[in-house]
Amino acid sequence: MSGRIVTFGELLLRFSKRGHKRFTQGEELLGNFGGSEANVAISLATLGNDVEYVTCLPKGQIGLAAKMMLQEYNLDVSHVLMEGDRMGTYYFEGAAALRNNTVVYDRANSAFSLLQPGTIDWHEILKGASVFHTSGIAGALTPNASESTFEALRVADEMGLTISFDINHRKNLWRYPGARPVETLSGMLEFADIMFGDVIEFEFLTGHPKIPFEAVDPNYKMDLDPYRRWFDDIHRRFPRCRKWLMGMRNQVSASHHLLTALLWSDGHLYSTRIYDIQDMVDPMGVGDAFAAGLIHSFGAFPGDDQMCLDYSLAASALKYSFNGDFNLATDDEIMDLINS
Q1: With contact defined as beta carbons under 8 Å apart, do 124 and 48 qualify?
Q2: Which of 70, 97, 284, 305 is the residue whose CA sits 20 to 30 A from 78?
Q3: Which of 174, 235, 173 is nearest to 202 (CA)?
Q4: Is the four-CA dihedral 272, 191, 138, 40 of positive or negative sign?
Q5: Residue 175: which of 100, 116, 109, 115 has the closest Cα?
Q6: Could you give the count of Cα atoms lying within 13 Å of 251 in the half-sphere of its Cβ?
Q7: Where are the alpha helices (DSSP H) in the chain?
Q8: Taking the CA of residue 35 as centre, how many other CA atoms within 13 Å lie in the half-sphere pointing to its CB?
Q9: Residue 2 confidence (pLDDT)
Q10: How far is the C-alpha of 200 from the C-alpha of 215, rounded, in Å?
Q11: Strands 256-265 and 243-253
Q12: Which residues contact 223 (CB under 8 A, 6 or more apart)?
């Protein structure tokens, strides 16, 4: 899998406090950009891929600043729309001790959420591309944003691209009248060749009770047979999808996570090591780092599914070391971690 990669989704402005302060503490808010599909695009570009990111940003200085940031990371933004009046935001309060992370979204009436189907010329954008990546987030925003995603998926399918899809179920976003998350996400997944999700998202989508991942150190031994049966059942429901990556994380404490993943590929189940991550910097974007690592590795190590899984997990583990949403790990750093 090589060639130009196109990703599609909403770019957000993130606000957070320094250290582990609560929203109610202090006067200073730090701002940076982020968003699942942009996170994937920037990670892929950092690894040397030719990547175009498609989104809709508001007119004015904030939208311009966001577009310039994307260009700084070497993304093709030639088809980014500049419409609407506001940018979607989210507020992030970091975990500490026994307190979990808190995320508050403010995305109503954002430029992206008001995107109208038929606005984007997907045939032109996807010409010459090999991979299209998106997620289920747009399906949760508005009916029009959802239909715009389906529109992109249908054209990518028609043009023969490899379609990569992240479930990205955000239960607090599905608020519009008539929203049906399971049906919508399942419909999007019908187009996918590669799928990403964590155990909670797999459980939500399939109704299959999740299998606990209870590692407290890297020596934890996983029983793979229940997972193998789970993946086989999912594949029967979605036969087009040939590769399924499931990320698993056990939060021992706010700053101590155990991380691993499984890859089901054409009937074979691959497992990998467990990373013991302590004193982490920022957990946001870890799942997006999984996706970018796997997409990149399919081109870098064709036919070697075990190496692709090892690479994806190492990329995701390194994301914990970076502030903000973006995984800026280089290929050399990822390979060094795999071989350490």
Answers
A1: no
A2: 284
A3: 235
A4: positive
A5: 109
A6: 13
A7: 36-46, 61-72, 122-125, 137-141, 143-158, 181-189, 199-206, 224-237, 286-300, 305-319, 331-339
A8: 30
A9: 64
A10: 16
A11: antiparallel
A12: none
Q: Which two tokens stand for residue 121?
A: 């010329």
CA distances from 332 to 2, 214, 230, 232, 311 (A): 19, 31, 34, 35, 11
Residue 330 DSSP one-character state:
-
Q: Can you tell me the distance from the alpha carbon of 195 to that of 177, in angstroms, rounded to the nearest whole number?
A: 27
CA 115, CA 220: separation in Å to the nearest integer? Answer: 46
Tokens 């949403």 found at: 325
Q: Give the ranges where 113-190 is alpha helix by DSSP (H).
A: 122-125, 137-141, 143-158, 181-189
Could you tell me the two tokens for 142?
A: 């508005």
Residue that is written with structure tokens 């957070």 in the block = 16
Closest CA to 88 of 104, 100, 73, 72: 104
CA distance 109 to 87: 8
Structure tokens at 258: 């155990």
What is the identity of the amino acid at 148? S
Exposed, middle or buried, 168 (CB in 10 Å: 0-12/13-18/19+)?
buried
**Lookup: tokens for 15:** 């606000």
The pLDDT profile of the chain, 340 residues, written as one tens digit per residue, is 568 999 999 999 999 888 788 888 888 888 999 999 999 999 999 999 999 999 999 999 999 999 999 999 999 999 999 999 999 999 988 887 777 888 889 999 999 999 999 999 999 999 999 999 999 999 999 999 999 999 999 999 999 999 999 999 998 899 999 999 999 999 999 999 999 999 999 999 888 888 989 999 999 999 999 999 999 999 999 999 999 999 999 988 888 999 999 999 999 999 999 999 998 888 889 999 999 999 999 999 999 999 999 999 999 999 999 999 999 999 999 999 999 8
61 residue type, one letter: Q
Would you state the structure tokens that stand for residue 264, as one six-digit string? 């089901």
Transcribe 283-297 into DSSP letters. -TTHHHHHHHHHHHH
